[in-house]
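=== Structural record ===
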Amino acid sequence: MHQYPQRPRPDDQPSYEEYPPRGQGQGQGQGQGQGHYEQPQHQGYQGYQEYQEQQPHTQHQHQHQQYGEQPPADEYPQPRRSRRRIWISAVVALALLLGGGGFAAWKLDWFSGNGEAVSFGKNPPPAAEKSEPGSPATPAKPSGDPDVLMPTGPKSDFKQTAKLDDGTIIAKTRLAGAKSGFEGDVWVWAPKEYDDPKYAKSGFPVLIALPGGNGFPANYWSDRSLGLQKAISDGVQAGTSLPFIVIMPVLNPDAKYYYDGSDIPGQAKMGTWMAEDVPDFAKANFRTYKSRDGWAFMGSSSGAFVGMKTVLQHPDKFKAVIASGGEIVPDSPLWKGHQAEMDANNPEKLAKKLIDTNGPEVYINFQIGTKESGKERMTKFVQQYGKGPVKTTIRDIQNGEHNGWHYVRGMKEGSLEWVSKVLKGPKPEAG
Protein backbone atom coordinates (compact mmCIF):
# COMPACT_ATOMS: atom_id res chain seq x y z
CA MET A 1 0.00 0.00 0.00
CA HIS A 2 1.27 3.45 -0.87
CA GLN A 3 2.48 5.25 2.25
CA TYR A 4 1.84 8.93 2.95
CA PRO A 5 3.63 10.96 5.61
CA GLN A 6 1.56 11.31 8.75
CA ARG A 7 1.01 14.65 10.41
CA PRO A 8 1.82 14.78 14.13
CA ARG A 9 -1.02 14.59 16.59
CA PRO A 10 -1.69 17.56 18.88
CA ASP A 11 -0.49 15.62 21.92
CA ASP A 12 2.78 14.52 20.33
CA GLN A 13 5.80 15.93 22.14
CA PRO A 14 9.28 16.08 20.63
CA SER A 15 12.09 14.80 22.77
CA TYR A 16 14.76 17.06 24.21
CA GLU A 17 17.32 15.41 21.96
CA GLU A 18 15.24 15.95 18.79
CA TYR A 19 14.49 19.60 19.53
CA PRO A 20 17.13 21.07 21.87
CA PRO A 21 16.50 24.29 23.79
CA ARG A 22 16.59 27.54 21.89
CA GLY A 23 20.17 28.72 21.97
CA GLN A 24 21.62 25.19 22.24
CA GLY A 25 20.72 23.67 18.89
CA GLN A 26 23.18 22.69 16.22
CA GLY A 27 24.90 25.74 14.76
CA GLN A 28 23.24 28.06 17.26
CA GLY A 29 25.85 28.46 19.98
CA GLN A 30 24.97 29.05 23.60
CA GLY A 31 22.20 31.40 24.64
CA GLN A 32 21.19 32.44 28.12
CA GLY A 33 19.58 29.15 28.92
CA GLN A 34 16.01 30.40 28.93
CA GLY A 35 14.80 28.54 25.86
CA HIS A 36 12.80 25.36 25.59
CA TYR A 37 12.24 22.78 22.94
CA GLU A 38 9.77 23.88 20.33
CA GLN A 39 7.17 21.87 18.48
CA PRO A 40 8.35 20.56 15.12
CA GLN A 41 7.71 22.78 12.14
CA HIS A 42 5.88 20.03 10.34
CA GLN A 43 4.53 20.45 6.85
CA GLY A 44 1.17 18.87 7.76
CA TYR A 45 -1.38 18.72 4.94
CA GLN A 46 0.68 20.97 2.70
CA GLY A 47 3.58 18.57 3.07
CA TYR A 48 1.33 15.69 2.07
CA GLN A 49 0.36 17.46 -1.13
CA GLU A 50 3.96 18.28 -1.98
CA TYR A 51 4.88 14.64 -1.27
CA GLN A 52 2.15 13.46 -3.63
CA GLU A 53 3.25 15.82 -6.40
CA GLN A 54 6.83 14.63 -6.11
CA GLN A 55 5.91 10.95 -6.62
CA PRO A 56 3.65 10.61 -9.69
CA HIS A 57 5.49 7.53 -10.95
CA THR A 58 5.22 5.69 -7.66
CA GLN A 59 1.54 6.52 -7.34
CA HIS A 60 0.89 5.44 -10.92
CA GLN A 61 2.62 2.13 -10.29
CA HIS A 62 0.52 1.60 -7.19
CA GLN A 63 -2.71 2.27 -9.06
CA HIS A 64 -1.63 0.05 -11.93
CA GLN A 65 -0.94 -2.82 -9.58
CA GLN A 66 -4.24 -2.37 -7.81
CA TYR A 67 -6.53 -1.66 -10.72
CA GLY A 68 -4.59 -2.70 -13.84
CA GLU A 69 -4.38 -5.95 -15.76
CA GLN A 70 -4.32 -9.20 -13.79
CA PRO A 71 -1.05 -11.17 -13.91
CA PRO A 72 -1.07 -14.63 -15.49
CA ALA A 73 -3.02 -17.09 -13.40
CA ASP A 74 -0.18 -19.56 -13.24
CA GLU A 75 2.16 -16.92 -11.76
CA TYR A 76 -0.18 -15.39 -9.21
CA PRO A 77 -3.23 -17.59 -8.66
CA GLN A 78 -6.15 -15.42 -7.58
CA PRO A 79 -8.78 -16.76 -5.17
CA ARG A 80 -12.36 -16.17 -6.23
CA ARG A 81 -14.04 -13.44 -4.22
CA SER A 82 -17.49 -14.23 -2.92
CA ARG A 83 -20.40 -11.95 -3.80
CA ARG A 84 -20.83 -11.24 -0.08
CA ARG A 85 -17.24 -9.99 0.24
CA ILE A 86 -17.69 -7.78 -2.83
CA TRP A 87 -20.80 -6.16 -1.31
CA ILE A 88 -19.03 -5.62 2.03
CA SER A 89 -16.10 -3.97 0.27
CA ALA A 90 -18.45 -1.70 -1.66
CA VAL A 91 -20.28 -0.64 1.51
CA VAL A 92 -17.01 0.12 3.30
CA ALA A 93 -15.76 2.14 0.34
CA LEU A 94 -19.01 4.13 0.24
CA ALA A 95 -18.82 4.78 3.97
CA LEU A 96 -15.30 6.08 3.60
CA LEU A 97 -16.36 8.39 0.80
CA LEU A 98 -19.37 9.72 2.70
CA GLY A 99 -17.85 9.80 6.18
CA GLY A 100 -17.18 13.28 7.55
CA GLY A 101 -13.48 13.91 7.84
CA GLY A 102 -12.68 10.78 5.83
CA PHE A 103 -9.56 10.45 3.74
CA ALA A 104 -11.41 11.18 0.51
CA ALA A 105 -12.77 14.48 1.85
CA TRP A 106 -9.37 15.34 3.30
CA LYS A 107 -7.67 14.73 -0.05
CA LEU A 108 -10.26 16.13 -2.44
CA ASP A 109 -11.67 19.08 -0.49
CA TRP A 110 -8.96 20.38 1.82
CA PHE A 111 -6.43 20.38 -1.03
CA SER A 112 -8.85 21.58 -3.69
CA GLY A 113 -7.41 24.63 -5.42
CA ASN A 114 -3.98 24.51 -3.77
CA GLY A 115 -1.48 26.38 -5.92
CA GLU A 116 -4.16 28.45 -7.61
CA ALA A 117 -4.24 32.24 -7.55
CA VAL A 118 -6.19 33.80 -4.69
CA SER A 119 -7.81 37.23 -4.47
CA PHE A 120 -8.94 38.63 -1.14
CA GLY A 121 -11.76 41.16 -0.92
CA LYS A 122 -13.71 39.78 -3.87
CA ASN A 123 -16.88 41.76 -3.18
CA PRO A 124 -16.62 45.36 -4.42
CA PRO A 125 -18.32 48.13 -2.45
CA PRO A 126 -21.78 49.26 -3.62
CA ALA A 127 -20.34 52.29 -5.44
CA ALA A 128 -18.18 50.07 -7.60
CA GLU A 129 -21.04 47.66 -8.29
CA LYS A 130 -23.12 50.47 -9.81
CA SER A 131 -20.41 51.56 -12.24
CA GLU A 132 -21.23 51.43 -15.94
CA PRO A 133 -19.91 48.37 -17.78
CA GLY A 134 -16.41 48.96 -19.03
CA SER A 135 -15.82 52.00 -16.83
CA PRO A 136 -13.12 52.01 -14.15
CA ALA A 137 -14.28 50.79 -10.77
CA THR A 138 -14.89 53.55 -8.27
CA PRO A 139 -12.38 53.25 -5.44
CA ALA A 140 -13.96 52.29 -2.16
CA LYS A 141 -14.12 54.97 0.51
CA PRO A 142 -14.27 54.25 4.22
CA SER A 143 -17.68 54.87 5.72
CA GLY A 144 -17.78 56.91 8.89
CA ASP A 145 -14.60 55.82 10.64
CA PRO A 146 -11.63 58.02 9.64
CA ASP A 147 -9.29 55.38 11.08
CA VAL A 148 -10.12 52.93 8.29
CA LEU A 149 -7.31 52.47 5.76
CA MET A 150 -8.29 51.04 2.40
CA PRO A 151 -5.67 48.88 0.60
CA THR A 152 -2.79 51.08 -0.50
CA GLY A 153 -1.35 48.65 -3.05
CA PRO A 154 0.40 47.31 -4.93
CA LYS A 155 -1.38 43.99 -4.57
CA SER A 156 0.68 40.87 -3.99
CA ASP A 157 0.32 37.63 -5.91
CA PHE A 158 -1.18 35.01 -3.60
CA LYS A 159 -1.31 31.25 -4.11
CA GLN A 160 -3.56 28.99 -2.06
CA THR A 161 -1.83 26.64 0.36
CA ALA A 162 -4.84 25.38 2.34
CA LYS A 163 -8.60 25.67 2.55
CA LEU A 164 -10.69 25.58 5.70
CA ASP A 165 -14.03 23.85 6.07
CA ASP A 166 -15.86 27.19 5.87
CA GLY A 167 -14.31 27.90 2.48
CA THR A 168 -11.80 30.48 3.69
CA ILE A 169 -8.30 30.29 2.26
CA ILE A 170 -4.75 30.35 3.59
CA ALA A 171 -2.47 31.71 0.88
CA LYS A 172 1.21 32.47 0.45
CA THR A 173 3.19 35.15 -1.33
CA ARG A 174 6.79 36.32 -1.56
CA LEU A 175 7.54 39.67 0.02
CA ALA A 176 10.62 41.73 -0.79
CA GLY A 177 10.95 44.04 2.20
CA ALA A 178 11.53 47.55 0.95
CA LYS A 179 12.83 48.81 4.30
CA SER A 180 14.71 45.77 5.61
CA GLY A 181 16.09 44.52 2.32
CA PHE A 182 15.07 40.99 3.37
CA GLU A 183 12.92 38.83 1.11
CA GLY A 184 10.83 36.02 2.52
CA ASP A 185 7.55 34.14 2.42
CA VAL A 186 4.38 35.41 4.06
CA TRP A 187 1.14 33.46 4.55
CA VAL A 188 -2.20 35.19 5.05
CA TRP A 189 -5.75 34.29 6.02
CA ALA A 190 -8.83 36.48 5.95
CA PRO A 191 -12.09 35.55 7.73
CA LYS A 192 -15.22 35.08 5.68
CA GLU A 193 -16.55 38.40 7.01
CA TYR A 194 -13.86 40.15 4.96
CA ASP A 195 -15.74 39.28 1.75
CA ASP A 196 -19.15 40.16 3.17
CA PRO A 197 -20.48 43.16 1.19
CA LYS A 198 -21.70 44.89 4.33
CA TYR A 199 -18.07 45.18 5.50
CA ALA A 200 -16.77 46.37 2.12
CA LYS A 201 -15.81 49.78 3.51
CA SER A 202 -14.71 48.68 6.95
CA GLY A 203 -11.25 48.04 8.33
CA PHE A 204 -10.28 44.77 9.97
CA PRO A 205 -7.89 44.14 12.88
CA VAL A 206 -4.61 42.42 12.05
CA LEU A 207 -3.04 39.63 14.10
CA ILE A 208 0.58 38.91 13.16
CA ALA A 209 1.21 35.28 14.14
CA LEU A 210 4.79 34.18 14.80
CA PRO A 211 6.05 30.60 15.21
CA GLY A 212 8.63 29.26 17.61
CA GLY A 213 11.98 27.72 16.87
CA ASN A 214 13.83 29.17 13.92
CA GLY A 215 10.63 29.93 12.03
CA PHE A 216 12.21 29.15 8.67
CA PRO A 217 11.46 28.23 5.93
CA ALA A 218 7.84 27.98 7.04
CA ASN A 219 5.53 29.54 9.60
CA TYR A 220 3.67 26.66 11.23
CA TRP A 221 0.61 28.79 12.00
CA SER A 222 -0.16 28.51 8.27
CA ASP A 223 -0.88 24.81 8.78
CA ARG A 224 -4.62 24.41 9.23
CA SER A 225 -4.07 21.40 11.53
CA LEU A 226 -3.09 23.70 14.41
CA GLY A 227 -6.56 25.25 14.31
CA LEU A 228 -5.68 28.93 14.78
CA GLN A 229 -7.89 30.18 11.96
CA LYS A 230 -10.78 27.93 12.96
CA ALA A 231 -10.50 29.15 16.54
CA ILE A 232 -10.96 32.71 15.30
CA SER A 233 -13.89 31.78 13.07
CA ASP A 234 -15.58 29.87 15.91
CA GLY A 235 -14.94 32.81 18.22
CA VAL A 236 -16.56 35.22 15.76
CA GLN A 237 -19.66 33.02 15.64
CA ALA A 238 -19.73 32.80 19.44
CA GLY A 239 -19.20 36.55 19.84
CA THR A 240 -15.91 36.10 21.69
CA SER A 241 -13.46 37.06 18.94
CA LEU A 242 -13.03 39.77 16.37
CA PRO A 243 -12.66 38.61 12.75
CA PHE A 244 -8.90 39.06 12.56
CA ILE A 245 -6.85 39.07 9.39
CA VAL A 246 -3.95 36.74 10.23
CA ILE A 247 -0.52 37.55 8.77
CA MET A 248 2.09 34.78 9.14
CA PRO A 249 5.60 35.81 8.03
CA VAL A 250 8.77 33.76 8.28
CA LEU A 251 10.48 34.58 11.55
CA ASN A 252 14.12 34.16 10.54
CA PRO A 253 16.19 34.45 7.35
CA ASP A 254 17.63 30.94 7.66
CA ALA A 255 17.53 27.82 9.81
CA LYS A 256 21.09 28.03 11.10
CA TYR A 257 20.60 30.75 13.71
CA TYR A 258 17.76 32.58 15.41
CA TYR A 259 17.82 36.35 15.12
CA ASP A 260 15.46 37.44 17.92
CA GLY A 261 13.35 39.34 15.37
CA SER A 262 15.90 42.14 15.63
CA ASP A 263 18.31 44.22 13.60
CA ILE A 264 21.49 42.57 14.84
CA PRO A 265 24.52 44.44 13.43
CA GLY A 266 25.88 42.74 10.33
CA GLN A 267 22.81 40.49 9.95
CA ALA A 268 19.52 40.58 8.09
CA LYS A 269 17.30 43.33 9.51
CA MET A 270 14.59 41.09 10.92
CA GLY A 271 13.39 43.76 13.35
CA THR A 272 12.66 46.12 10.47
CA TRP A 273 11.10 43.27 8.51
CA MET A 274 8.71 42.51 11.36
CA ALA A 275 7.86 46.05 12.50
CA GLU A 276 7.84 47.82 9.12
CA ASP A 277 7.71 45.60 6.04
CA VAL A 278 5.14 43.08 7.25
CA PRO A 279 2.63 45.75 8.42
CA ASP A 280 3.19 47.72 5.18
CA PHE A 281 2.43 44.53 3.26
CA ALA A 282 -0.81 44.06 5.19
CA LYS A 283 -1.83 47.65 4.53
CA ALA A 284 -1.07 47.27 0.83
CA ASN A 285 -3.38 44.26 0.45
CA PHE A 286 -6.15 44.57 3.03
CA ARG A 287 -8.57 47.00 4.61
CA THR A 288 -6.94 47.76 7.93
CA TYR A 289 -6.65 50.60 10.46
CA LYS A 290 -4.33 53.57 10.52
CA SER A 291 -4.02 53.56 14.30
CA ARG A 292 -2.42 50.96 16.54
CA ASP A 293 -5.90 50.03 17.79
CA GLY A 294 -6.17 47.48 14.98
CA TRP A 295 -2.76 45.82 15.33
CA ALA A 296 -1.53 42.98 17.55
CA PHE A 297 0.91 40.07 17.66
CA MET A 298 0.63 36.51 18.86
CA GLY A 299 3.45 34.01 19.06
CA SER A 300 4.81 30.92 20.75
CA SER A 301 8.24 30.46 22.33
CA SER A 302 10.76 32.52 20.33
CA GLY A 303 7.85 34.01 18.35
CA ALA A 304 6.29 35.14 21.63
CA PHE A 305 9.50 36.95 22.51
CA VAL A 306 9.60 38.71 19.13
CA GLY A 307 5.95 39.75 19.34
CA MET A 308 6.28 41.11 22.87
CA LYS A 309 9.55 42.87 22.08
CA THR A 310 8.08 44.51 18.97
CA VAL A 311 5.00 45.79 20.80
CA LEU A 312 7.16 47.29 23.58
CA GLN A 313 9.55 48.77 21.00
CA HIS A 314 6.80 50.30 18.86
CA PRO A 315 3.84 51.13 21.12
CA ASP A 316 2.81 53.75 18.58
CA LYS A 317 2.18 51.03 15.98
CA PHE A 318 1.04 47.97 17.96
CA LYS A 319 -1.21 47.67 20.97
CA ALA A 320 -1.23 44.08 22.22
CA VAL A 321 0.41 40.67 22.15
CA ILE A 322 -0.51 37.12 23.14
CA ALA A 323 2.84 35.67 24.23
CA SER A 324 2.93 31.90 24.81
CA GLY A 325 5.75 29.82 26.20
CA GLY A 326 7.94 31.78 28.55
CA GLU A 327 10.52 33.61 26.40
CA ILE A 328 11.40 36.98 27.95
CA VAL A 329 14.91 38.21 27.06
CA PRO A 330 17.05 38.13 23.89
CA ASP A 331 19.50 35.23 23.69
CA SER A 332 20.69 34.94 20.09
CA PRO A 333 24.38 34.01 19.86
CA LEU A 334 24.67 36.67 17.16
CA TRP A 335 24.43 39.43 19.80
CA LYS A 336 27.98 38.72 20.94
CA GLY A 337 29.92 41.98 20.91
CA HIS A 338 26.77 44.08 20.56
CA GLN A 339 25.57 44.56 24.15
CA ALA A 340 24.05 48.02 23.59
CA GLU A 341 22.03 46.83 20.62
CA MET A 342 20.89 43.75 22.54
CA ASP A 343 19.73 45.93 25.43
CA ALA A 344 17.69 47.99 22.97
CA ASN A 345 15.82 44.79 22.10
CA ASN A 346 15.32 43.52 25.64
CA PRO A 347 11.63 43.52 26.73
CA GLU A 348 12.59 44.15 30.35
CA LYS A 349 14.51 47.31 29.50
CA LEU A 350 11.90 48.38 26.96
CA ALA A 351 9.11 47.98 29.53
CA LYS A 352 11.04 50.02 32.09
CA LYS A 353 11.58 52.78 29.55
CA LEU A 354 7.88 52.81 28.72
CA ILE A 355 7.01 53.06 32.42
CA ASP A 356 9.55 55.82 33.06
CA THR A 357 8.27 57.90 30.13
CA ASN A 358 4.61 57.10 30.81
CA GLY A 359 4.32 55.92 27.22
CA PRO A 360 1.23 54.59 25.46
CA GLU A 361 -0.54 51.69 27.14
CA VAL A 362 0.38 48.24 25.81
CA TYR A 363 -1.27 44.95 26.66
CA ILE A 364 0.60 41.68 27.20
CA ASN A 365 -1.29 38.44 27.71
CA PHE A 366 1.07 35.64 28.69
CA GLN A 367 0.02 32.03 28.12
CA ILE A 368 1.77 29.13 29.81
CA GLY A 369 0.93 25.42 30.04
CA THR A 370 0.83 23.88 33.50
CA LYS A 371 3.06 21.07 32.22
CA GLU A 372 5.85 23.32 30.93
CA SER A 373 8.44 25.47 32.65
CA GLY A 374 8.80 29.22 32.28
CA LYS A 375 6.01 30.63 34.40
CA GLU A 376 8.47 31.96 36.95
CA ARG A 377 9.96 34.25 34.30
CA MET A 378 6.52 35.52 33.34
CA THR A 379 5.58 36.09 36.98
CA LYS A 380 8.80 37.98 37.63
CA PHE A 381 8.20 40.19 34.59
CA VAL A 382 4.65 40.94 35.70
CA GLN A 383 5.78 41.80 39.23
CA GLN A 384 8.56 44.13 38.07
CA TYR A 385 7.11 45.68 34.93
CA GLY A 386 3.36 45.04 34.95
CA LYS A 387 2.46 48.56 36.04
CA GLY A 388 1.72 51.99 34.65
CA PRO A 389 1.23 51.74 30.88
CA VAL A 390 2.33 48.08 30.76
CA LYS A 391 -0.82 46.02 31.30
CA THR A 392 -0.15 42.32 31.88
CA THR A 393 -2.09 39.12 32.50
CA ILE A 394 -1.08 35.44 32.75
CA ARG A 395 -3.31 32.65 31.48
CA ASP A 396 -2.63 29.13 32.73
CA ILE A 397 -3.47 26.39 30.23
CA GLN A 398 -4.45 23.37 32.29
CA ASN A 399 -2.41 20.29 31.32
CA GLY A 400 -0.89 22.41 28.58
CA GLU A 401 2.53 21.64 27.15
CA HIS A 402 4.99 23.57 24.99
CA ASN A 403 3.21 23.30 21.62
CA GLY A 404 0.93 25.21 19.29
CA TRP A 405 -2.13 23.02 19.74
CA HIS A 406 -2.27 23.76 23.45
CA TYR A 407 -1.62 27.47 22.90
CA VAL A 408 -4.55 27.60 20.49
CA ARG A 409 -6.65 25.94 23.18
CA GLY A 410 -5.65 28.72 25.54
CA MET A 411 -6.70 31.27 22.96
CA LYS A 412 -10.09 29.61 22.63
CA GLU A 413 -10.46 29.49 26.40
CA GLY A 414 -10.00 33.22 26.83
CA SER A 415 -7.02 34.88 25.17
CA LEU A 416 -8.85 35.60 21.91
CA GLU A 417 -11.63 37.26 23.86
CA TRP A 418 -9.02 39.24 25.82
CA VAL A 419 -7.28 40.64 22.73
CA SER A 420 -10.63 41.29 21.04
CA LYS A 421 -11.64 43.59 23.89
CA VAL A 422 -8.38 45.51 23.55
CA LEU A 423 -8.58 46.10 19.78
CA LYS A 424 -11.23 47.55 17.52
CA GLY A 425 -13.25 45.53 15.03
CA PRO A 426 -15.09 46.08 11.76
CA LYS A 427 -18.47 47.75 11.64
CA PRO A 428 -21.08 46.85 9.02
CA GLU A 429 -22.73 49.51 6.95
CA ALA A 430 -26.11 50.64 8.18
CA GLY A 431 -29.07 49.11 6.40
Summary: The CA atoms of residues 56 and 62 lie 10 Å apart. The chain has twelve helices and twelve strands.
